[in-house]
């Protein structure tokens, strides 16, 4: 409670809050990756405001109550707005709204007879942008940034279909137009799932927490082509600096925006006076669930622009507009079970199954529980009564448990150690919060995804086996594992009977579909070892790591054998694997887990019966200094193991022997070398230091 704070304590807390809030602003606005929920963030802001109200002398120059957003990120050129872009004050109910309207009346000295018309606009949770048009052409576009200076995202904005590059009809010489860039709910969900899948497969991507972060992340890309690939939408709703007045009311101004070719939210409406707001708010609340996009409230803007000018701004928000936020939609229900879903990439995600309940117009049966740590943190047990919430996010969350209603037989959640689908081990690694199925090659939940990866261009590169065809072959039960691909020839006749697959087709390219496909498959019976390893889709084994493994182990049988031995913690092979430069212990663990599942190994061997991985070869083995030469290693090498060095030499065409004789061409002398080095000198055999060996062998 701020009531009990001493002045020194208040100052210290304000300092801490300023720093904390600035950090969360940065995470939210610049990195599009908030660490805390909006409700938690809003609580910090409220706390700051309360203390400031009590100790006005302590208000800091960097106080969050004076700032908007966050400064522009360095990655973008800076763009100064012609007029500041501010935030909006919030109200949460009819009394607060009435107070807002009364303040306007007081400020303007209006009599009770004077009517206050407003324009109501749904508040979409996206990000606001400022668009500069000169002579009717789109010149520059920027994010809000800190309100004065934003990030120049012109190239990205040009990719938005809704953004007119030229204004239609008459227009001022120079004008700033503002609007909201956002993603629709369905597009957000698809995008979030795709990002999650990438994350699961070991890619470093951000999974957006809500549509706003997703929209902001999509727009704030260095590569505009990425922005272009995201279905961003734009509604225009305001004006910044303009070279001449455009309209006398906000409503007329929205009409001009439409004339110029912008989309204006069709739900925006002019209200005759402040008393119409409550009904509008209620109507939007009812429509909310059915809208294609998420809204978190309604923005009410005073219609008369001359009055807006007189009212101006206070702090970080205009006096003439307000955001009336919807209350977070909550409901109470009973948790019946926690089921585990296995994602396409093997992530096990707990999901709450509840007695159906209506939350803000949507019947909810399931809620995400994210991961087992979250279940533990909220102490959610099966049989509990829980409070559900749909806030800004589309997906309901469990906020908390009603402990008073916990039945005596409520069951704590016990994490599964087995995949519920394929019964392979399910493991959590290091500080990863996600538990994963290790049955990569055999888990039905992951099969289609693995097969797609297996045939993809950078992996086995089997032409004609696109996603659709993989799915079809899977649905027809011809494909279950990678090896099955190489047995498809036996089903050629059956495949030809499918619609569009040949027999019934008139188009020549369809008639040849099956033979072409089978030929493409045959062509891949031999592939470089590194592609083969990469194609297996083992977590964290991307192209680069596959290459390192192939180079180190050279042949498939050798690699396989070493991986099996490496299952033993502390074994020489495990150490060797972990010490390969670029691999390291974490990746070693992923590999070892893959090999620890016997059915993965069976699937791998099945595949190796169909495909022959070619030994890894160094660049230009034939013309290397070691081709056809006999070499001996002695002493301890510091940059690679003896095994690796021998493998490299063999790959370069050398014959590696153990003892030095007159037939020896080179002796590579490591540290603490003994008699062999002496013998080489005695016989006049060339010796190389480790460094010379590396450079002649062409190792980095
Ligand atoms: N979780 C976190 O760490 C974190 C950090 C910072 C901010 N936040 C959240 O961000 C919000 C504060 O951000 P804010 O300052 O942008 O305020 P705001 O989002 O509450 O309101 C201002 C914004 O509303 C948007 N808007 C939508 N429709 C509009 C319309 N028709 N007319 C005008 N504006 C419209 C614009 O983008 C504008 O910038 C809060 O909800 C806060 O919880 C969260
Ligand atoms: Zn599984």
TrEMBL record:
The keyword Zinc applies. Zn(2+) binds at residues 419, 422, 443. Keywords: DNA damage, DNA repair, DNA replication, Ligase, Magnesium, Manganese, Metal-binding, NAD, Zinc. The keyword Magnesium applies. NAD(+) binds at residues 38-42, 87-88, 121, 144, 180, 301, 325. Residues 621-693 form the BRCT domain. The active site is at 123 (n6-amp-lysine intermediate). It holds the Pfam family DNA_ligase_ZBD. Its EC number is 6.5.1.2. One of its GO terms (molecular function) is DNA ligase (NAD+) activity. Its cofactor is Mg(2+); Mn(2+). SMART domains: BRCT, HhH1, LIGANc. It is an enzyme of class 6 (ligase). DNA ligase that catalyzes the formation of phosphodiester linkages between 5'-phosphoryl and 3'-hydroxyl groups in double-stranded DNA using NAD as a coenzyme and as the energy source for the reaction. It is essential for DNA replication and repair of damaged DNA. NCBIfam families: dnlj, PRK07956.1. Belongs to the NAD-dependent DNA ligase family. LigA subfamily. This is DNA ligase.
């Amino acid at each position: 409670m701020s009531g009990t704070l001493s002045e020194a304590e208040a100052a210290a807390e304000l300092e801490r809050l300023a720093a904390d809030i600035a950090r969360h602003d940065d995470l939210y606005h610049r990195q599009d990756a908030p660490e805390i929920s909006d409700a938690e963030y809003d609580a910090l802001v409220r706390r700051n405001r309360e203390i400031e109200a009590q100790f006005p002398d302590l208000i800091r120059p960097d106080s969050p109550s004076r700032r908007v957003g966050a400064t522009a990120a360095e990655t973008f050129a800076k763009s100064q707005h012609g007029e500041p872009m501010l935030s909006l004050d919030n109200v949460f109910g009819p009394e607060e709204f009435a107070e807002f309207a009364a303040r306007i009346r007081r400020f303007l000295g209006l009599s009770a007879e004077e009517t206050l018309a407003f324009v109501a606009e749904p508040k979409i949770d996206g990000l606001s942008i400022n668009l500069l048009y000169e002579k009717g052409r789109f010149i520059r576009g920027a994010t809000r940034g800190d309100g004065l200076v934003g990030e120049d995202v012109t190239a990205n904005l040009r990719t938005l279909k809704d953004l007119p590059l030229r204004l239609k009809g008459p227009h001022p010489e120079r004008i700033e137009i503002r609007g909201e860039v956002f993603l629709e709910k369905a597009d957000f969900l698809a995008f979030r799932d795709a990002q999650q899948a990438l994350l699961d497969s070991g890619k470093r991507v951000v999974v957006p927490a809500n549509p706003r972060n997703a929209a902001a992340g999509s727009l704030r890309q260095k590569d505009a082509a990425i922005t272009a690939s995201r279905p961003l939408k734009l509604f225009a709703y305001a004006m910044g600096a303009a070279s001449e007045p455009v309209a006398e009311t906000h409503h007329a101004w929205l009409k001009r925006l439409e004339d110029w070719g912008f989309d204006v939210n069709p739900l925006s409406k002019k209200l005759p006076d402040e008393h119409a707001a409550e009904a509008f708010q209620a109507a939007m609340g009812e429509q909310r669930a059915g809208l294609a996009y998420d809204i978190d409230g309604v923005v009410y803007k005073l219609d008369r622009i001359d009055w807006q000018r007189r009212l101006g701004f206070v702090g970080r928000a205009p006096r003439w507009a307000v955001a009336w936020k919807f209350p977070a939609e909550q409901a109470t229900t009973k948790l019946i079970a926690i089921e585990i879903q296995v994602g396409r990439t093997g992530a096990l995600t707990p999901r709450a199954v509840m007695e159906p309940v209506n939350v803000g117009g949507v019947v909810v049966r399931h809620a995400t529980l994210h991961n087992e740590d979250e279940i533990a943190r909220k102490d959610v047990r099966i049989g509990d009564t829980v409070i559900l919430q749909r806030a800004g996010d589309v997906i309901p969350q469990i906020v908390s448990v009603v402990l008073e209603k916990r039945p005596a037989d409520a069951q704590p959640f016990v994490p599964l150690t087995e995949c519920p689908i394929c019964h392979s081990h399910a493991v959590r690694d290091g500080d990863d919060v996600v538990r994963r199925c290790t049955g990569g090659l055999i888990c039905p939940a992951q099969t289609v995804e693995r097969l797609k990866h297996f045939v993809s261009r950078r992996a086995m590169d089997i032409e004609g086996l696109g996603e659709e065809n993989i799915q079809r072959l899977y649905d027809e039960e011809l494909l279950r594992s990678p090896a099955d691909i190489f047995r498809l020839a036996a089903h050629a006749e059956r495949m030809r009977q499918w619609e569009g697959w040949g027999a019934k087709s008139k188009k020549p390219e369809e008639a040849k579909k099956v033979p072409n496909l089978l030929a493409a498959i045959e062509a891949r019976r031999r592939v470089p070892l590194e592609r083969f390893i990469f194609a297996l889709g083992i977590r964290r084994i991307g192209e680069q790591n596959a290459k390192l493994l192939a180079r180190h182990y050279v042949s498939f049988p050798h690699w396989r054998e070493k991986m099996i031995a490496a299952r033993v913690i502390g074994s020489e092979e495990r150490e060797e694997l972990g010490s390969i430069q670029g691999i390291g212990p974490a990746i070693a663990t992923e590999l070892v887990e893959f090999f620890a599942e016997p059915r993965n190994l069976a699937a791998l061997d099945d595949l190796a019966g169909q495909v022959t991985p070619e030994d890894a070869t160094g660049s230009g083995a034939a013309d290397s200094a070691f081709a056809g030469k006999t070499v001996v290693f002695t002493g301890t090498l510091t940059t690679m193991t003896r095994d690796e060095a021998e493998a490299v030499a063999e790959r370069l065409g050398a014959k590696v022997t153990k003892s030095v004789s007159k037939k020896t061409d080179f002796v590579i002398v490591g540290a603490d070398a003994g008699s062999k080095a002496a013998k080489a000198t005695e016989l006049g055999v060339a010796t190389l230091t480790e460094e010379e060996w590396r450079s002649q062998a062409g190792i980095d």
